[in-house]
Amino acid sequence: MKNKRLLMIPLFAVLIVGVFAMAFSIGADSVDINPTNDLEIGYNSMVTIETTGEFEGRETPLGEWEIVSQSTNQIYDTGKEAIEDYLGEGTGAGDAFDWIELCDSVAAGCGTPVAGKSETFTAHAADGLSAVAGTVGSNAPSGNWSIWNTFTSTAANQLTNVSRLQNAGGDDLAGNAFGLVNLSNGDSLLVNWTIWVT
After folding, report:
1. In this structure, what is the dihedral angle of CA atoms 47, 51, 53, 55, given to the nearest 10 degrees?
2. Three-state SS at 181
3. How far apart are the first and last CA of the chain?
4. Beta carbons of 187 and 52 less than 8 angstroms apart
5. Closest CA relative to residue 88, chosen from 96, 80, 99
6. What is the dihedral of CA 116, 121, 122, 127, to 10 degrees?
7. Average pLDDT for residues 160-167, to the nearest whole number?
8. In Å, how far from its chain's centre is CA 117?
9. Using 50, 70 and 90 to split pLDDT, how confident is the model at 77?
């Protein structure tokens, strides 16, 4: 009887050590054991620019729309921080990124958007091209939504080639460069940001 008890002590010790070893190995790097912990939220966006005005040295036929570009955008560091605030801290609700702003190429030129938002950018402040809250359309079950606006110039020789998506407070989410467009009085520019989360 005494020998059986002595045999149980090492068996019990091995069992305890094994349980602790297994617990530490799961907690140390759970990504290797459970690949679903490796999922991330991806930001994707496509911006479509169409015009009734002149671009790349040619005029669009009267009454027709012509696609200037369809391209992805550059998410700004401030946009990444805003996403973190919305998702991580629950702040910023009610201040959606639904404003579209155009750069005034005549005033100072418009640089290609970069993450640090250090490019040259002067916003249009008049002539029908000022920042405006766009129309928002959502396909809620899929995580896709669009923000769009048709700008109509009220003056001649209005040049633009960069748009930004921002909130009402002026915090920029992202920027997009497109072919230089020259809008005359009455010409229109349709800017459509489509965003999806993967």
Report:
1. 40
2. strand
3. 64
4. yes
5. 80
6. -120
7. 94
8. 14
9. confident
What count of other Cβ atoms lies within 10 Å of the Cβ of residue 132?
16
What gap in Å lies between CA 174 and CA 195, rounded to an integer? Answer: 11
pTM of the predicted protein model: 0.71
Where do we find the tokens 């036929």?
61
Amino acid at 177: A
Please give the order of strands across the beta sheet that includes 144-152: 66-71, 43-51, 188-197, 144-152, 135-139
Eight-state DSSP code of residue 82: H
Between the alpha carbon of residue 139 and those of residues 43, 64, 194, the distances in Å are 16, 28, 11
Cβ atoms 68, 49 nearer than 8 A: yes
Which tokens belong to 107? 């005033």
Whether 163 and 101 have beta carbons less than 8 Å apart is answered as yes
